[in-house]
Design a protein that fits this description.
Elements (H helix, E strand, L loop, with lengths): L4 H7 L2 H24 L3 E7 L18 H9 L1 E7 L5 H10 L27 H7 L3 E7 L28 E5 L11 E2 L2 E2 L9 E3 L28 E2 L2 E2 L3 E3 L11 H15 L5 E6 L20 H23 L6 E7 L35 H4 L4 E3 L7 E8 L3 H8 L16 H4 L10 E6 L1 E6 L2 E5 L6 E2 L4 E2 L4 E5 L15 H17 L5
Parallel strand pairs: 1-11, 1-12, 2-14, 3-4, 3-11
Antiparallel strand pairs: 2-13, 4-5, 5-6, 7-10, 8-9, 12-13, 15-16, 16-17, 17-20, 18-19
């Protein structure tokens, strides 16, 4: 006999009817609040100088990246995933603060003695997740300055403010970049293994006439091509001068192992709690000096070998999640801080051994520029059981992670917090019909506005520019239709003057408004 829902309800006793209504109400509210009660751990893996075409799941064939490919197979691979800028410091600033770096002075590539660029009291992705009960940590490259004061960081004392003053509970850092001094690790507020009788100094000139990449070039294990010719540390000359701290100095070949071990330790130590980890690899930034077991692993030279090492580091994190039964409880986000560069100051045969490899994939340009190759990078999210595997064309950017994590944890951002971060949580989670951004400002040498498939480039001046990763013709503005011309080869400024005018006006409005978050 078929019984109608009406007859069933009316035949129930009052107590049973009340229970059924309660069940229905729970069913109605659960989808919207599920992530509040079952929040995943979050592991954000951000690599350095990795291009759209540098990994297998985005088309690379001369270097194998099975662990990153695994993420793509088990999660969402974005075809329009972006760094916030085409260089590291501004992207990392934007990723943490949800604010375009070009809105704040002093957010260019940080020099060796840079003090803290993000000040205490700033809302960050770490402080947001900390308020939601997460234990927060960052391991790897920092490059956002440490300490305060006119003399630069107190390398021989407490290095604060730093990550711990803006929402992180733990940090193990490379303070700047591998090609800059000081070549030491920092754990929480202190240089690791620093001896009191061997203090560190960091300067822009040679304080004691020490050997340099110029005076002792023939002793280097890797020659420099431009700019990287000051203090010699571990047989490699760097940007800037460093004295002291001999026991604390790193060995480049061990860096991948050291950072990976610290990332694994953080996961193991917090496996019973909710945790947020940024694993910020140094690879594949220069100087590319992978561990000996990876040297020669690819036909692309040390640049390709560094990609293979970075993929191994990713694999160690994934294996740790598997071993601790955390894979289905952890949202993994994989991205890069900007696009690729071949010769970035060292002669490591990246150009000579390029073969048919296309670091930027189908896109034009790379690091430093505002063409797509500079900012469009690999971008993957994975959470088995909650993110259905697939490919997404939605526009997402690292600047959106702060607002999206706030939404995931049920928090309302203050009006002045994360001013350019969009809530694209649904897109990141691969939800059907969920939308990403409708526009994005890309930062490089100048700014660019992507609106749908249209992109307007506003160069700082009209002069032609040519460099290793960036070139342009005459004129200050360029307009491209990325749907028809992803390689940005046909400038449509003259064909669509009204669109150019409208997009220029919108870019100016975004700049003047001080925010773009809806």
């Amino acid at each position: 006999m078929i019984v109608s829902p009406h007859n069933t309800l009316t035949s129930l006793r009052p107590l049973a009817l009340t229970a059924l209504v309660a069940i229905l109400l729970v069913a109605m509210i659960t989808p919207a609040n599920a992530e509040k009660t079952e929040l995943p751990n979050v592991v954000l893996i951000i690599t350095d100088d990795l291009g759209y075409g540098d990994v297998g799941c985005y088309g690379a064939t001369d270097v194998k990246t099975p662990n990153i490919d695994r993420l793509a197979e088990e999660g969402v691979r974005f075809t329009s995933g972006y760094a916030a800028a085409s260089t590291c410091t501004p992207t990392r600033f934007a990723m943490l603060t949800g604010k375009y770096a070009w809105r704040q002075a002093g957010t260019g590539i940080a020099p060796p003695n840079a003090t803290a660029i993000i000040q205490p009291g700033t809302e960050t992705i770490a402080s947001i997740l900390g308020k939601a009960g997460y234990t927060t940590g960052i391991v790897g490259k920092w490059h956002l300055g440490l300490g305060e004061g006119p003399g630069g960081p107190e390398w021989n004392d407490q290095l604060k403010p730093g990550p711990l003053e803006i929402g992180f509970d733990y940090c193990f850092l490379m303070p700047t970049t591998g090609d800059r001094v000081p070549c030491v690790y920092v754990e929480n507020h202190r240089v690791v293994q620093l001896e009191a009788d061997d203090p560190i100094t960091v300067t822009n000139n040679n304080p004691d006439g020490q050997p340099t990449g110029i005076t002792h070039r023939d002793t280097l294990k890797m020659d420099w091509s431009h700019g990287h010719n000051s203090s010699i540390i571990n047989g490699i000359s760097r940007i800037g001068f460093m004295t002291g701290g001999h026991q604390a100095r790193w060995r480049d070949e061990d860096m991948g192992d050291v950072f990976t071990a610290k990332a694994v330790d953080f996961i193991e130590n917090n496996a019973e709690d909710k945790f947020f980890l940024i694993f910020s690899t140094h690879d594949i930034h220069v100087p590319r000096m992978p561990n000996e077991r990876f040297q020669g692993a690819t036909p692309l030279g040390y640049r390709g070998d560094a990609i293979a090492q970075m993929d191994w580091c990713v694999g160690q994190v994934l294996q740790t999640l598997d071993r601790l039964d955390l894979t289905k409880k952890t949202l993994v986000i994989f991205c890069s801080d900007n696009g690729p560069v071949l010769d970035d100051g060292y002669k490591d045969q990246a150009i000579e051994k390029i073969r048919e490899h296309k670091p930027s994939g189908p896109f034009r340009g790379g690091k430093y520029g505002i063409y797509e190759g500079g900012t469009r990078t690999p971008f993957i999210t994975r959470l088995p059981g909650r993110i259905a595997p697939g490919i997404s064309d939605e526009i997402v950017c690292v600047v959106d992670l702060a607002a999206s994590m706030a939404a995931m944890t049920g928090q309302q951002l203050e009006d002045d917090a994360c001013p350019d971060s969009f809530n694209v949580r649904g897109a990141l989670m691969g939800e059907s019909g969920a939308k990403g951004r409708d526009h994005l400002v890309e930062q490089g040498r100048g700014l660019a506005l992507r609106e749908g498939n249209w992109k307007l480039l506003a160069h700082p001046d009209g002069k032609p520019v040519k460099s290793l990763t960036y070139s342009k013709g005459p004129g200050q503005f360029e307009l491209f239709n990325l749907a028809d011309d992803p390689g940005e080869t046909k400038n449509l400024v003259k064909e669509y003057p009204e669109r150019v005018a409208a997009m220029r006006a919108k870019l100016d409005a975004i700049k003047e408004a001080g925010r773009s978050r809806p």
